[in-house]
Amino acid sequence: MNNKKHALLFAWLWLVSAVTLAQSVNVTGSVIDPTTREPLVGATIIAKGQATGRVTDNQGKFSIPANRKGPLTLRVSMVGYDSQTVSITDNAQPLTVLLNPATSQLNEVVVGASRVEERLVRAPVTIEKMDARSIRETPSATFYEGINNLKGVEMVTSGLTYRQINTRGFASTGNSRFLQLIDGVDNQPAGFGFSVGNMFGLSDLDAESVELVPGAASALYGPAAFNGALLMTSKDPFIYQGLSVQAKVGVNHLNDPNRNAGPTSPAVYNDHAIRYTKAFNNKLAFKLNASYMWGLDWFATDYTDVNQSTPSELRGSQNPARNALNIYGDEVVRTLPGAGQVSRTGYLEKDLTDYNVYSLKLNGALHYRITPKLEAIYTFNFAKGTANYTGSNRFSVNGFSLTQHRLELRGKQFFVRWYSNAEDSHDSYNTRSLGQQINRTWVRDLNGNVVTPDKADDTWFSRYAAAYGGTVPNVSGNDQTAARSFADQGRLLPGTSEFDAQKERLTAIQGLAGAGILSQTSMWHADGQYNLTSAFKNAAEVLVGGNFRQYSLFTNGTLFDDKGGRILYHEYGAFAQVSKAFLADKLKLTVSGRYDKNQNFAGYFTPRASAVFSATGRHHFRASYQTGFRNPTPSDQFIKLNVGPITILGGAPSNSAGMNVYENSYTAASVNQFGAGFGADVGRVGPQQALLNNKDKLQKANVPYIAPERVNSFEVGYRALLSNNLSVDANYYYGIYTNFILNTVVLRPGSPVLGQDGKPNAAAAQNILNGNVQAFQLYTNAPDKVSSQGATLGLTYRTPGGYQIGANGTWSAFNIRNADPNNVAAFNTPRFKTNVTLGHRNIAPNLGFNVAWHWQESFEWVSSFNALIPGTVPAYHLLDAQVNYRMPTLKTVVKLGATNLTNQYVVQAYGSPAVGGLYYLSLVFDQGLR
After folding, report:
1. Cβ neighbours of residue 133 closer than 8 Å, sequence gap 6 or more
2. Domain TonB-dependent receptor plug spans what residues (predicted)?
């Protein structure tokens, strides 16, 4: 009986499929440029009312299924061309659609500015867009790097696989003030608290568009969009079908003197990807993506001596207390009788980390159209890779993985979405801790016996003091070099089997006894949105939405204070937005507001109001008041990481209970002043008197526990088509920040910081000189208001001959006002930067090119990597270029390009690597097996 039922069911399904197929035909045609008569590759064809879409192939041709009932209307569009609507009654005849080149890109459609589709010119706030054509033709090695050419963007490179994006100041290598979404999904590892560039993102083959919303966007996107939001969209499998393959090979490290293989021996770079999609009868579609990139990372080789206790003129390689920026282990320092301050001999970063990096991305998606206007989506993403990341230390993010699941139900007026992110740190480790720990494995006492790690530092300094004091036979006294050589006897040398064995052992040990990092943190997120405009009979556009997020932290005590089990906490938010047009649609007013509540903090309301006035079809003025709000990240609250000379401590009150840090510590600035004064006096008056002369320079720290931060921002802008070929976009903003979340460094001595007289305690000052002190990097808030302002100007000109010329400039400024400069987050942004682009898609048949030049001014970089001490990032320029040749019959594009064509080794963040040129050749086969 059951077999009969199954047979009947199968027959019924086959019959329905046959009937459905019988009702459909394929409409075929081609899309061309009427001027050049060139076929247009990548034009989109949508069948109105049937949710059916396709893109043209490498010969400009398309084939789209359509229902036979009644006439059919197709909407044909392509970036850089005016859209066209075509009505057809005879499906059997092939079509030829002519698309006229657009005079500007101002009529593009964007979503990110208001969370609904709108013309770019009517967007209420500044927004930048990188469309499918820009992605395909970017001169950068990847589309993500190409975002740097948009105006207002700040990109910081920590390594070959990791770049960080920011807007409007306060840049960092780990930017938790900037939201990054891929198809609406936050792709941050929760343990990081920020997106790790595009390491866990889209491949170039699957990227359709990028929208950048600079500035405070919390009113619509929640706490993470404090400085802005980057919205990336992947290709729809119903529209972009078939097989696509990318093979990209290149070289980097040309003329790099830091390569062990020699400066004339370049390193090989590979980036390969494959994408396959297929749709069945416009109801069911799937998509599969895989990409793998590998290469030799850039080297961090800045050996500047940053020991603030040594006068600047005495710093350098001959300084006994040298603390080199990219040498680790030499942060361990003591003051020895007669010898003064001495540091341990450290190891170069390039001997501690693995510069062979890779990035693996796997993606699968299943789309099912329940009705033509209702679609169910499931996606799975898995990414794993290696990067060298500059945070409070340099970290080897080694084999780190992120697993994501997404379920979504999407209709014409709404969506409901759930997704989860789960990370695993695998073999990641702290390179600075590794250097310090290796230094504790080989130290011998004066009898030649290797001591245990807990005694290694004290023993090494004892050997040094004995040698310098002249009590060691056959070692010259009062000789710093001889004393160091004696103390270093038995030191493990990089490249030896003993060194490699200790490196492997210590990176596998997670926690204070080793250098390994454990993070198996996860989060899940649910959100939804509904457009109520039809319910109001189109009198106004009304949008509502909300979200709920749950964090689950687990590092087994190696990063967070979670030895007793997982740390769980949640946050939620809701928003509403109303837009209405007045004055015959010339004036558009938008008001929105959002309320957010984190389990550990008070709730906050963030409003936004904007107006767009279109004086004519060519001239559009905008003004807005925006607010930003950011909850402390999991790391801000709960991190408790001992990295040797400093312990990073989150600002939640429970996180520091019993540690006596907030209650008994000195500010780092006052300790530096004390050390400098002591160093200047000790040779003249002796150590005891020098201590008494300078101890009152020490200042007790008064650091509050952490709280959410806020910004109020005002913006005006102007978009216009000045002529048929020239467009302009300009804006100015001014922001006021309160409760800005920042890091501050304090030092806790072994003795009380204040004596009975209420003044700095001499015993605590002696603790500092003896090394009986522990530094802490605390997460807290700036108590005073600070402000920033800036402006951007962009011009785009299309010549009659088809050349596209673009130029944009950005000015940024920071005003500390009356705030304490020691308690304000680093602005880390150059005053001026600019981009100039030049391209032509058909300079000759099937031949195109694109060039982009970026320049930015020198500025000071402040981060916890160098204990919040400023370091200069010199001015630099980058030149990217590519030339491409299309082979339509082979459905292949050949692209020859270079990023940083002139091979200038530039540093984009103090302590990060010097980035040189990357030269590549790629072949992209597209839309096969359609």
Report:
1. 42, 78, 79, 80
2. 122-229
Q: How far is CA 576 from the centre of its chain?
A: 28
Could you read off the pLDDT of 788-824 as tens digits, one per residue?
Answer: 999 999 999 999 888 999 999 999 999 998 888 767 7
The enclosing H or E element of 683 equals: helix 668-685
Residues 272 and 361 in one domain: yes
Instruction: Note whether 43 and 31 are within 8 A (CB).
Output: yes
Of 773, 781, 704, give the one whose Cα is nearest residue 743: 781
Report the largest interatomic distance among the alpha carbons of the chain, rounded to a whole angstrom.
105
Give the CA dihedral 854, 858, 864, 865, nearest 10 degrees. Answer: 70
Q: Are residues 75 and 137 in the same domain?
A: no
**pTM listed for this prediction:** 0.87
CA distance 305 to 314: 10
SS3 146: helix
For residues 126 and 225, give the distance between their C-alpha atoms in angstroms, rounded to a whole number.
14
Separation of alpha carbons 651 and 600, rounded Å: 11
The reply to whether 199 falls in a domain is: yes
DSSP-derived secondary structure for 376-441: EEEEEEEEEEEEEEESSSEEEEEEEEEEEEEEEEEESSEEEEEEEEEEE-TT-EEHHHHHHHHTTS
Other Cβ atoms less than 10 A from the Cβ of 873: the count is 21
What pLDDT shows up at residue 501? Answer: 97
Per the CB < 8 A criterion, the answer to whether 800 and 823 are in contact is no
CA distances from 902 to 878, 919, 921 (A): 8, 10, 17
Phi-psi region of 340 (alpha: psi -120 to 50; beta: other; left: phi over 0): left
Q: What is the pLDDT of residues 232-269, one digit of tens each?
A: 999 999 999 999 999 999 999 999 988 766 666 899 99
Task: Give the SS3 label for residue 855.
Answer: strand
The H or E element that residue 717 is part of is strand 709-721
Cα distance between residue 277 and residue 651, in whole Å: 47
Residues 88, 237 within the same domain: no
DSSP 3-state assignment of 144? helix
Q: In whole angstroms, give the CA distance from residue 646 to residue 268.
A: 37
Domain of 60, in residue numbers:
24-98
- Are the beta carbons of 304 and 330 closer than 8 angstroms? no
Is 141 found in the same domain as 83?
A: no
**Which has the closest alpha carbon to 439: 291, 306, 519, 328?**
328
Residue 11 has pLDDT above 60, yes or no: no
pLDDT of residue 16: 40
Mean pLDDT of 719-728: 90
> 221 in a domain, yes or no?
yes
Residue 134 falls within a domain, yes or no?
yes
- Structure-token match 């004339």, residue found: 264
Q: Give the span between the Cα atoms of 468 and 457, in whole angstroms.
A: 17
Mean pLDDT across the stretch 72-93?
78
**Structural domain ending residue among the three candidates 781, 801, 832:** 781
Looking at the structure of the chain, the number of domains it has is: 4
Percent of the chain scored above 70 by pLDDT?
94
879 and 826 in one domain?
yes
Q: Averaged over 567-583, what is the pLDDT?
A: 95
Co-location of 259 and 143 in the same domain? yes
Crossing angle (nearest 10°) for helices 497-507 and 431-438: 130
Boundary-marking domain end, from 507, 538, 561: 507
Q: Are both 86 and 182 inside the same structural domain?
A: no
Which range, of 73-77, 142-146, 499-503, 849-853, averages the lowest pLDDT?
73-77
Does one domain contain both 37 and 186? no
CATH of residue 40's domain is 2.60.40.1120
Q: Which pLDDT does position 62 carry in this prediction? A: 85
Q: What is the CA radius of gyration of the chain?
A: 30
